[in-house]
Design the sequence.
């Protein structure tokens, strides 16, 4: 979620559409709203109401500096984790051969 | 034409989510429901043909109300825990002493409370306000009573004029039987009022100097446990996956 928002601000429905392209990420689309709400209350994300071309105003989400640094941390942790798993799998593969 | 059944379907869905979210604070439920409603509107306006089938598929993709509520509760339940102190604590000697002292000698107790991290600032403020309120009440009560006492002695002195044999100049001490013995109802009410005010005075003095500090200590004892029992220990791992993208995420 933070990574998506790092590419620029979005409103809720846009986020759902982008996430649903990686279809394994989203079991039920509605769950992103509690998540967004929590990120907002933790100060990682901020919201702004904007007029939309048609229909009611939309709530746009944007990363805060705290959100950016959290994203950087998560990304690093994820890379470390992936490398550890890759290394483990490769060594196992080497043994079976 | 087809607007009404669709609206009814949306309302029913949102009501079910709301019910399933029952234990969340109102503001959080409100926010989720508003977001979901906006989402449904956006999704409906994105499809060329709005009918019941498209709406149902949109709601399907949003998720079943109870499933949605379960995830929401998981995520909301940990809200704020990231910014709070990480360690799950039990009341230690320090906190116990602080609470007990707040009940007995609250100025010292409250200093200890303020130095501790076991309470939130809000709770510290509330706990400090109670004894201060007591002090203010006692102060307010004690100050005007000096002025009032003169007035009260006048009121009590007046019934003496009714009793025939007594000399009015020698006013009896406040609340003596002579006053009660006088037949008219008027003097009794003044005596009752005097008793009533002195009772109130005792209540304010006791409540202000002991009751409210005690209440403050009780409040602290109660508030201590609540925010701390639920911490990162249980939420830590899932908080990572919940806040960050799930493990399948590709950077």
Sequence:
């Amino acid at each position: 979620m933070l990574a998506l928002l790092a590419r620029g601000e979005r409103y809720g429905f846009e986020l759902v559409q982008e996430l649903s392209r990686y279809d394994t990420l989203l079991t039920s689309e509605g769950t992103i709203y509690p998540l967004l709400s929590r990120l907002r209350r933790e100060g990682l994300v901020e919201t702004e109401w904007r007029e939309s071309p048609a229909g009611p105003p939309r709530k746009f989400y944007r990363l805060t500096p705290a959100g950016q640094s959290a994203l950087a941390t998560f990304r690093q942790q994820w890379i470390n984790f992936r490398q550890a798993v890759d290394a483990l799998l490769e060594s196992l593969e080497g043994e079976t051969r | 034409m087809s607007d009404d059944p669709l609206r009814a379907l949306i309302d029913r869905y949102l009501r079910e989510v709301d019910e399933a979210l029952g234990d969340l604070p109102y503001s959080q439920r409100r926010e989720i429901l508003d977001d979901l409603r906006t989402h449904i509107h956006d999704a409906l306006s994105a499809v060329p043909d709005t009918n019941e089938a498209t709406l149902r598929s949109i709601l399907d993709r949003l998720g079943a109300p109870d499933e949605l509520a379960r995830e929401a509760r998981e995520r909301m339940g940990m809200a704020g825990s990231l910014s709070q102190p990480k360690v799950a604590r039990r009341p230690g000697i320090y906190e116990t002493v602080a609470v007990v002292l707040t009940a007995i000698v609250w100025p010292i107790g409250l200093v200890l409370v303020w130095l501790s991290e076991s309470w939130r600032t809000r709770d510290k403020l509330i706990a400090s306000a109670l004894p201060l309120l007591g002090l203010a009440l006692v102060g307010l009560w004690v100050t005007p009573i000096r002025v009032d006492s003169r007035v009260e002695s006048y009121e009590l002195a007046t019934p003496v004029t009714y009793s025939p044999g007594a000399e009015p100049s020698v006013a009896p001490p406040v609340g003596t039987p002579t006053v009660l013995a006088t037949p008219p109802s008027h003097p009794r009410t003044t005596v009752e009022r005097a008793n009533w005010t002195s009772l109130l005075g005792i209540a304010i003095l006791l409540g202000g100097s002991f009751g409210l500090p005690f209440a403050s200590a009780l409040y602290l004892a109660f508030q201590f446990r609540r925010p701390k029992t639920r911490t990162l220990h249980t939420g830590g791992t899932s908080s990572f996956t919940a806040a960050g993208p799930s493990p399948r995420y590709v950077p």
User: Anything to note?
Assistant: Chain B touches chain A at residues 17, 28, 31-32, 35-36, 38-39, 41-43, 45-46, 61-64, 67-68, 71-72, 75-76, 78-80, 82-83, 240, 242-251 (CB under 8 Å).
